[in-house]
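Retry 2 of 3 after timeout on previous attempt. Resubmitting structure tokens to design endpoint.
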């Protein structure tokens, strides 16, 4: 493992060099810990235009020998805009108003914390330059060696065979030891993928987060923010649409240049590891999807084949399971936008995986099919509450991605043995298709999840494939209302539904529809005239209620023959 060393060559350390034991500090002692990044001799007053900051400036004031006090002051004012590390002064040459100019420099040094050092006249500026340049060169060599060592360490981790699936954890553990701070990785949805001890497992990028330069060449974006503690966030683009966030929490020490070097090497290893995991996962998904598709659709033709497939899936052939079919509606999506639909489905799949344990997940185009092991001790009511909570949690995650997406789920019955899964899958699909019309028969209004067992008499209707057969369950009078061609038709249908939901109470119907009582009464009379419904006949009213649900069912099945 690489060994970290302190980087940065300060003015204080320069003064400790044996060659400079005769140097005197004239002022600006507050700046002794400034880092030295370069050195230059002032050969002309306009040199200040060409410095970058962090330099030690060497001067005998000879460049200012004939300038006036006002001109020298203007030079100093220009110098204040440059973050120099120190000035090394050599007296002895003939300079006009030298004492005044030196006093101005000392005042400048005290005000801005810039150390002013004096060396004997016989001391060579070239020797000082060589000394500083050698130290700076050694620092760069050390950085290069550190980069090489850390790069080799992380490359070895990334290339080593890993059957445990802990490659990311190992990389983060090594990085945390190198930089002496906890680290965590988050995916593009800001969900924690892996973290070391002490790292925050939730990420919110504050509006006050500011970019910062890592002082090394980097292809990544660095941010710093202060939450309860200081955090460094590195955003890494993984592919055209995906990215990760590597977060360093500054608990041990401030994040510095050497930490950036180690982190960049770790990121290279992480990118390789994530790419490897993605390739393996996609291959496994494809293999698993094919097996699950065959099992769910009853395409396994022998017990031997079934045993082999269940073994490959890692499930018990005699276990108890139920199938759940998830999907989404998105009214804002442009029709035919297949790429957006795939992206949305992937988000749904990730959310389901997060909230459903003990399950196998199958991506079926725009739906997600879940085969889930069941707890035999759990009651139907307990499961109903559980699946409702799961769907609500999945909805919460999906809404963060796109607020227009609405999650829905259909749930099949419990079956004993993998071979019977097609039965549960068929029921789950039918319940899924029924979710949008379930509000007509459920006290919950329009639930997000529907158990096939809760459909009651409507389970019989799910067995009908012919539209004409479904239409037979819509009373002839109600069909006349749906075929009514005048603009009032929609108002009349809504009024009829509300009237029946309110147990034929005209006052409550008017309140729900925000219309006058007489308007509601007029509409009911109109409906009775068109349909011939006898609202005093309980059997006829029941037939109409069923007919309303069946009609909505037909529409949702895209049976547009009406």
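Retry 2 succeeded. Sequence:
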């Amino acid at each position: 493992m690489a060994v970290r060393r302190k980087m940065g060559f300060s003015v204080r350390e320069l003064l400790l060099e044996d060659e400079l034991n005769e140097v005197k500090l004239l002022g600006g002692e507050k700046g002794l810990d400034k880092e030295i990044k370069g050195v230059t001799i002032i050969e002309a007053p306009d040199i200040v235009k060409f410095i970058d900051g962090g330099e030690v400036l060497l001067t005998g004031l000879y460049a200012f020998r004939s300038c006036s006090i006002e001109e020298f002051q203007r030079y100093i004012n220009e110098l204040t805009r440059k973050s120099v590390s120190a000035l090394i002064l050599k007296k002895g040459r003939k300079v006009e108003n030298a004492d005044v100019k030196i006093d101005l420099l000392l005042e400048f040094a005290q005000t801005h914390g810039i150390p002013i050092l004096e060396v004997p006249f016989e001391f060579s500026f070239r020797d000082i330059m060589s000394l500083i340049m050698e130290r700076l060169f050694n620092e760069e060599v050390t950085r290069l060696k550190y980069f090489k060592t850390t790069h080799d360490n992380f490359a070895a981790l990334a290339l080593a065979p890993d059957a445990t699936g802990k490659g990311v954890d190992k990389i983060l553990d090594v990085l945390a030891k190198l930089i002496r701070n906890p680290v965590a990785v988050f995916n593009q949805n800001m969900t924690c993928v892996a973290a070391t001890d002490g790292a925050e497992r939730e990420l919110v990028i504050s509006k006050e987060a500011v970019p910062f330069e890592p002082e090394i060449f980097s292809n990544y974006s660095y941010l710093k923010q202060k939450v309860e503690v200081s955090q460094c966030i590195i955003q890494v683009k993984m592919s055209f649409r995906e990215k990760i966030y590597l977060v360093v929490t500054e608990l041990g020490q401030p994040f510095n240049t050497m930490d950036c070097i180690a982190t960049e090497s770790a990121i290279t290893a992480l990118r390789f590891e994530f790419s490897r995991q993605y390739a393996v996962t996609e291959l496994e998904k494809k293999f698993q999807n094919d097996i699950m598709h065959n099992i769910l659709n009853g395409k396994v033709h022998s017990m031997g084949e079934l045993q082999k497939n269940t073994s490959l899936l890692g499930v018990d052939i005699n276990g108890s399971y139920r199938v759940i079919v998830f999907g989404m509606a998105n009214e804002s999506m442009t029709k035919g936008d297949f790429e957006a639909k795939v992206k949305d489905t992937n988000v749904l799949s990730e959310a389901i995986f997060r909230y459903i344990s003990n399950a196998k997940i199958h991506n079926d185009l725009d739906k997600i099919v879940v085969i889930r092991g069941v707890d035999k001790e759990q009651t139907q009511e307990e499961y109903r509450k559980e699946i409702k909570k799961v769907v609500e949690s999945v909805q919460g995650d999906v809404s963060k991605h796109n607020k227009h997406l609405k999650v829905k789920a259909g749930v099949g019955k419990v079956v004993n043995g993998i071979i019977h899964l097609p039965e549960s899958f068929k029921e789950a699909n039918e319940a899924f298709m029924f979710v949008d019309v379930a509000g007509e028969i459920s006290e919950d209004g329009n639930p997000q999840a529907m158990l096939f067992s809760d459909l009651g008499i409507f389970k019989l209707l799910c067995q009908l494939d012919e539209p004409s057969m479904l239409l037979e369950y819509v009373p002839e009078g109600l069909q006349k209302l749906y075929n009514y061609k005048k603009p009032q038709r929609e108002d009349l249908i809504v009024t009829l539904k509300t009237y029946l939901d309110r147990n034929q109470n005209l006052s409550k119907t008017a309140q729900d529809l925000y219309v006058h009582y007489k308007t509601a009464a007029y509409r009911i009379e109109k409906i009775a005239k068109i349909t011939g419904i006898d609202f005093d006949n309980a059997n006829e009213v029941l037939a109409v209620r069923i007919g309303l649900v069946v009609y909505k069912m037909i529409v949702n099945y895209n049976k547009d023959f009406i």
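Attempt log closed. DSSP finds 17 helices and 17 strands in the chain.
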